[in-house]
């Protein structure tokens, strides 16, 4: 049982880190490695100075929806972890981690909705940027999709996990 508890805790921390990286890093859409776009900025690499030049992304309704859903996913997962730690030390023997599991499942569903919206509406989100056919989805987008099943599985594991002495 201790191994299962350690596994679930480690899985939770890994997915929380992946969610945070997917939300904050600059690689949801990439053009030739010299220009990329994320949820917050459009950046271009300047060869003369060797630095990234970034400007705020144009706020569209779809982009704002993705931003809100990804931030909510991080918040749900963080609350879930804090509640889990609290329940671990205060819950009576035999108790189930329902609230922790539900928060984690909600985190998975909000990440799913955000990634799905970005997938279906990336043309509207990136409307002022370069031609989309010369670009591709970046690693943060892939991280967001990878988090979805991990969050859902860990949420279900929390729901079935019982506290033992």
Helix content: 55-70%
Sheet with most strands: strand arrangement: 4-3-2-1-5
Give me the CATH architecture, please: Up-down Bundle
- Tell me, what's the shape? elongated
Total beta-strand segments: 5
The helix/strand class is alpha+beta
Given this structure, which CATH class is correct?
Mainly Alpha
Number of helices: 5
> Distance N terminus to C terminus?
10 Å
The chain-level mean pLDDT equals 86
Q: Radius of gyration from the CA trace?
A: 19 Å
Q: How many structural domains can be distinguished in the coordinates?
A: 1
Portion in strands? 5-15%
Low-confidence stretches: none
For the largest beta-sheet, the strand count, sense and barrel status come to:
5 strands, antiparallel
| Order of helix and strand elements from N to C terminus | HEEEEHHHEH
Using the coordinates shown, work out and report the CATH topology. Butyryl-CoA Dehydrogenase, subunit A, domain 3
Attribute tags:
165 residues; alpha+beta; Butyryl-CoA Dehydrogenase, subunit A, domain 3; five-stranded antiparallel β-sheet; 13% strand; elongated; transmembrane; PMP22_EMP_MP20; Epithelial membrane protein 3; PMP-22/EMP/MP20-like
């Amino acid at each position: 049982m201790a191994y299962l508890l350690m596994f679930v805790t480690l899985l939770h921390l890994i997915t929380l880190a992946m969610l945070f990286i997917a939300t904050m890093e600059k690689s949801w859409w990439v053009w030739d490695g010299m220009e990329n776009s994320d949820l917050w900025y459009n950046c271009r690499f300047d060869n003369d100075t060797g630095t990234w030049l970034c400007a705020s992304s144009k706020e569209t309704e779809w982009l704002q929806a993705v931003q809100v859903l990804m931030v909510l996913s991080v918040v749900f997962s963080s609350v879930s972890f804090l509640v889990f730690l609290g329940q671990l030390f205060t819950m009576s023997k035999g108790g189930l981690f329902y609230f922790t599991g539900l928060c984690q499942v909600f985190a998975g569903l909000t990440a799913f909705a955000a990634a799905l919206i970005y997938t279906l509406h990336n043309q509207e989100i990136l409307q002022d940027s370069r031609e989309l056919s010369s670009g591709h989805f970046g690693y943060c987008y892939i991280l967001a999709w990878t988090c979805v099943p991990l969050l859902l599985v860990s949420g279900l594991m929390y729901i079935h996990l019982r506290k033992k002495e």
